[in-house]
Amino acid sequence: MRAAVVVGPNQFRVDHVPIPEPGTGQVRLRLEGCGVCASNLTPWAGPEWMRFPTAPGELGHEAWGVVDALGEGVQGIAVGDRVAALTYRGYAEYDLADANAVLRLPDALAGQPFPGEPLGCAMNILDRCGIAAGHTVAIIGIGFLGAILTRLATDAGARVIAISRREFACDLARSMGAAATIRMDDHSRVIEQVKAQTDGALCSHVIEAVGKQWPLDLAAELTRERGRLIVAGYHQDGPRQVNMWLWNWRGLDVINAHERDPACYMQGMRQAVAAVGSGRLDPTPLYTHRFPLERLDEALDATRDRPDGFLKALVTF
């Protein structure tokens, strides 16, 4: 099979390696595609802790495909099932997954890309937020995740204020149900505009979905007293400072909405399958860029540089 191997900072090659054999309790997937996650960007840049070369297919963890072999003891899954799965070497034509980390896709999703892991993350973040009808929610960062959360929070009955540095992303947020949009270009101006949108009350819930210092600072400023600040951005490029005086003075509830338990991932993915399969959520327009495996570097660079119109890259086979 073909598999991507990252050999150094911003460098990769495609190798031909043996197709893996499933062990006990595992299935093998012939992959149709794998989403590109922003969490790949720090390893791709080559920090001191990164070790090269990577294992074939490594870094890819948003895969979907068709089951083509079963390991011993696997039940309830059949060869030919189209599935999303938690796998960890998805930048390859085949990957292995534990049988309990595989989720069958319904016929309603036939032919559609389904990067289950990030879709499941969005559902889990919403669950952690505790958003309900009548809440005022600011979402900072309208990329793939922020756009989905805009739709989900709106559907829950909340009034969403979407904040993004990109004009096209503000347009997208409005199409996903945002009641108001604000360009993220000046710290003080954003705060004043949110105050104007909320009659000075600020927001009951603020979701930071960028993963950088400034949006985290801004999120605290936009959260009202006894409000809830939800950290959904992936902060992996170094320590962060927080305004503990402000957090303490306002009595904020701070939720780090990340999961590491595979069972939680799978629960979110099941909710995502139900939402997309029923038509309640349509992520298809958010898959803006597609690349073959041989152009994985371009997919990663686009995820880093976010050219105009970019939301989510998929590597497809």
TrEMBL record:
The keyword Oxidoreductase is assigned to this record: yes
InterPro entries reported in the protein's UniProt record: ADH-like_C, ADH-like_N, ADH_Zn_CS, ER, GroES-like_sf, NAD(P)-bd_dom_sf, Zn_alcohol_dh
Required cofactor names: Zn(2+)
Keyword Transcription: no
Positions of the Enoyl reductase (ER) domain: 8-315
Keyword annotations: Metal-binding, Oxidoreductase, Zinc
Entry superkingdom: Bacteria
Pfam annotation, one family: ADH_zinc_N
Record-stated family: Belongs to the zinc-containing alcohol dehydrogenase family.
Protein name, entry field: Zinc-binding dehydrogenase
